[in-house]
Amino acid sequence: MPGHDAFSAAIAARDNAAWCASVCAAHGIGSDEAEGVWRADAPTPAGYPEAVTLEPGLDPEVVLAALPTGSTSVKDSFADVDLTAGGFRVQFEAQWIMLPASGPSAGAAGIDGPDLPVLTPIRTPGHLAEWAASHGGTEAFASALLDDPTVVILGERRGGAVVAGAILSVGENVIGVSNVFGAASVYPAAAADARRRRPGRPVVGWETDGDLAAPLAAGFHRIGPLRVWLR
Question: Residue 84: which domain range?
Fold first, then answer.
């Protein structure tokens, strides 16, 4: 059964909002937080929400009022805000996940094993374009992300092409992992990279139910549900 840890889910949601803010900033879009909601100042790139709830139990009217004109997506971080009155519908449901900072579960899949793919940082706009094309989300990944000290874009190259990757968002007390693609072993490789960069910090992210197998095998736990609303 999925776990439910509202405190950890709030940490994961805040990290995810920080990553969304980095994507927005790379596109020249400002953002801020107010009344328990992170919100962008303008419509965001495809695949990224205009708002992320940061606290459970928010009033739907508060969330709707926070949205900029033209908003099409909200990440309901605790799956507890009904936005149908604003013309939204649930696009999908997912689970926040966490790899604990320490304890037996942190090494459940041997995340420092010898057979993991070699992930290296993407450092140039040209390589980022290759990475984005392999990922399938070219619009979101602007080259300005390469200058953001809180963002680490990792890729595996094989035969001269990018075949796998992930993104780390480095916060003060946690590291987020997102946009994982490629073989199932990319998850433990990304987690191992995160651990080397910031030892002793938990690693958080989210996945839909159909994509949970790889992170769960790497030692991540479910910590709570989320929903993405679209209109």
Answer: 6-96
